[in-house]
Amino acid sequence: MEAVELDRSGQPPRLVIGPSIEPLISEYLSWYSGVSTPHHAYLLEDSSDGRLFLNYLNVAFENFPYSPINCDLLAAHREHIRGGLHKYESNGRVLPKYTWLAAYHDYICRMSADAYSTQYYEEADAFDMAVEVEARKALDYLVCSEEQRPFRLLSADRLPPLSTIVSDARGEKS
After folding, report:
1. What is the separation of C-alpha 33 from the centre of its chain, rounded to a whole number of angstroms?
2. Cβ 104 vs Cβ 151: under 8 Å
3. What is the pLDDT of residue 112?
4. What are the DSSP calls for the chain, one per residue?
């Protein structure tokens, strides 16, 4: 029901992680060795409202750099967004949703290309160079949204510890 209300209220079209589930996610992620693990890439924070949401476009880069980027997925997502931007250009309720999607899409493409840059590598080898070339292909799929959204990768201190939810459930003060 909350998702339906968020959609009606004009909120961005995203799968939001509710604050009540954040401590459980924190506990799960703590089993791994830090924010550099792939699991952290599946959540982003929209710093305009502080909400965490599912980074579903991460599946295009899921096996990268050991497998190619799923450019078909990026192309289909881009075309869907372009179609929506055109179709709803006069609809003040729906257009902002597509504008948000375009900014999210472009953020992921740019971030993914930048993540594999060898610009600061002192000892980049042939594999590193090939990975950079492949990663830069994501830039070919930009929607070229003008809106820049303040998305952020999930940081280590963003989520509350599980003890918070346990204390709250017991009525204890932290």
Report:
1. 20
2. yes
3. 92
4. -HHHHHHHTT--S--EEPGGGHHHHHHHHHTSSSTTSGGGGGEEEETTTTEEEE-GGGGGGTTTTTS---HHHHHHHHHHHHHHHHHTTT-TTTHHHHHHHHHHHHHHHHHHHHHT--TT-SS--HHHHHHHHHHHGGGGG----S----EEEPPTTSSPPHHHHHHHHHT---
Which is nearest to 58 in space by CA: 153, 156, 159, 158?
153
> 69-117: per-residue pLDDT in tens?
999 999 999 999 999 999 999 999 999 999 999 999 999 999 999 999 9
Tens digit of each residue's pLDDT (9 = 90 or more) over 148-168 = 767 877 766 666 665 544 455
Number of domains in the chain: 1
Residue with tokens 């339906």: 4
- Output the pTM of the full model: 0.80
Half-sphere exposure of 7 (CA within 13 A, CB side): 7
Which structural domain, as residue segments, surrounds residue 158? 2-170
Who contacts 97 (Cβ-Cβ below 8 Å, separation ≥6)? 10, 12, 13, 84
d(Cα 68, Cα 1) in Å, to the nearest integer?
38
